[in-house]
Amino acid sequence: MNQQPRHSQPSSEGTPAWDRRYLFHYAAEYRDRGWSVIPLRGKKPALASWKEFQERRPTLGEVAVWWGGPRPQFDNMGIVTGQLSGLIVVDCDDPQDAMWWQQQYPTPLMVRTGSGGTHYYYRAPQEVVRNRIRLFGRRIDLRGTGGVVVAPPSVHPDTQLSYMWHPEQTDYALDAIPLFEPAWMPEIATRPHHSGGDHSGKRIHDARAYIQRIDAVAGQGGHAATFRATCILRDAGLSPEECLAELISWNQLHAHPAWSVAELLHKVQSSFAAHTSAAPASPDRGNAVL
Fold first, then answer.
1. pLDDT tens digits for the chain (290 residues)?
2. Nearest-angstrom CA–CA distance, 129 and 70
3. 277 CB burial (10 A radius; 0-12, 13-18, 19+)
4. How many domains, the chain?
């Protein structure tokens, strides 16, 4: 795509007819640029095994199966963020927060979301940057390793409006956009190391792997299963903010139906409150603020 992609307004059926026919071309272009793409249902990954595309990009054949032909198998697509795609994306839902962010950390590569927000694209640094929410106490979320963002020309499931590249944007090349600096986020750059010596990293890795075996199904102990996953992450040494980021990724695949972020936040707060009421809070956990 050497020129700005064209976008039509949504049809009465919800999906722009022109964009739907050309989903394959968009997806193939993103893949050629080194971005890992996956199919979405609405805003959620459509594949149970989507996490494998955090380790490898889909083949052109897989892209053709998902979006090729006059009737694509899936209407929406996502871009997997983090090291593989080389992307960090910041999501601002509120126009004032978006204006503030763009003034602080400008980038020419932007997407207008179907809900009226803005996605800001950056090159991923060598350091692993994980998902975060409510940065600086604003309606600003970050998608890094373990995350996925809805990509143009997908359609928002609630508003039926298309995600569109910023009208002034004409170049998707990664070398044309700024590097995301972890130092922009003090809570990321200065977070203290977890206690527990040389074994803390293995405990966290094992906890992340373990909760992938936990499914939370409504009416079948879903609340207890989610709380259990939260406690496992907590006991491995993650802070409340890190627990919430891990649960957001876990939630997309293992909760049926998925919890809202507010519900996950409540479970994290309850888990840490129960833990601190039973024993003195450690310096790290006691001072952690969600």
1. 433 344 343 333 444 444 566 789 999 999 999 999 999 999 989 998 888 999 999 999 999 999 987 778 898 999 999 999 999 999 999 999 999 999 999 999 999 999 999 999 999 999 999 888 888 878 899 999 989 999 999 999 999 999 999 876 655 667 789 999 988 876 554 344 444 444 557 788 888 889 988 999 988 999 999 999 999 999 988 888 788 888 887 887 888 888 887 888 889 888 888 765 554 433 333 332 22
2. 38
3. exposed
4. 2
Same domain assignment for residues 152 and 166: yes
- The answer to whether residue 151 sits within a structural domain is yes
Tokens representing 271 are 């888990």
Question: Does residue 70 form part of some domain?
Answer: yes
Q: Which pTM does this prediction carry?
A: 0.65
Distance of CA 132 to the CA centre of its chain: 9
| Residues spanned by the domain of 267 | 192-276
